User: Fold these one by one.
Assistant:
Number 1:
Amino acid sequence: MADGLISLSAAIGALGLVAETGIILVDVIGRAFGSPLFGSQDLITMTMVILVFGGMALCDRNGGHISVDLLERKFPSAVNRVIDITAALLGALIFGFIAWSVWDSAQLSVMLNLSTNLLGLPKAWFQWALCAFAALTALGMMLRALELIVSGRDIRKEWTQS
């Protein structure tokens, strides 16, 4: 079920990338003819939220986050395992706080009826999307930590070796 949600999140992020590319393309062509796309900055800013956070859970699941392994060969495998578990739990905590903070911010946006400057798109919609993506990433990181604790194996390393 978690893999399905992660795949859905990545697909939504990919749609955000396609939309972002289309918006920029139309805007650049329009500028060349003296008629830029009205509201393109609003659309690009809000779509970037979907693009970046939509793929975050998949990035973690595939081991795509930056890691520094300078000392990995020097430590025993048990120490490396504890470091991996701690990193996954810390990442889950950070993304949980991001989700919580953005949820509070969305509540404020609803209360103040905040919207984008030109198009008047409600900011809360995009904040709720960011909150959902951050919560999904936190869940994925928690499940990875649980997987490391229970089974002792890291599926990300198996995927990168194949």
Number 2:
Amino acid sequence: MGAILMVEWRLVQVRPNADSIAIRNVERQGFSVFRPLEIVTSIRGGRFVSRLRSFFPGYMFAGYAGPAAPWSVINSTYGVARLVKFGDRPTTVPNRLVAELQAACDDQGVISLASRIMAGASVEVASGSLAGFIGEVERLTPDQRALVLIEFLGKQTRVSLPVAQLKVASQHSDVARHHRE
């Protein structure tokens, strides 16, 4: 019985607007590629438009399960800016980190950090008509929805939202909320 080879993951910087090209070309060279996505909502022409974008814009993970990965070829791959290095060695991304990110993604590679959302959490609405609003989770319901208190037009408003549309608010979002108050 042969030995099971562990995948070694590296971080790859992608050229602007070349994600699809880079993914295709890195995969053709025998590497696995992982690029988690997120749903973002913006207003275009007065309408809300949702689209997928990279969760880590400008970056993707490349993995190789062989005994001697040909990492040097990635730097000359069409669509790739460079293999991220610290010093003269490509940076290894811990397998556990990649596995946790992969586990948080659905079948289409869309990441859901909903498992970190709990009552009392400060959240940002990531998609839908309330995208960009910051609020606090009042409670979660059994049907994967959250009752969120959002400040709207100077008063606290309770809205029911799918947990999948929420993400834990970052410190940057908290700063933005305090500036609006």
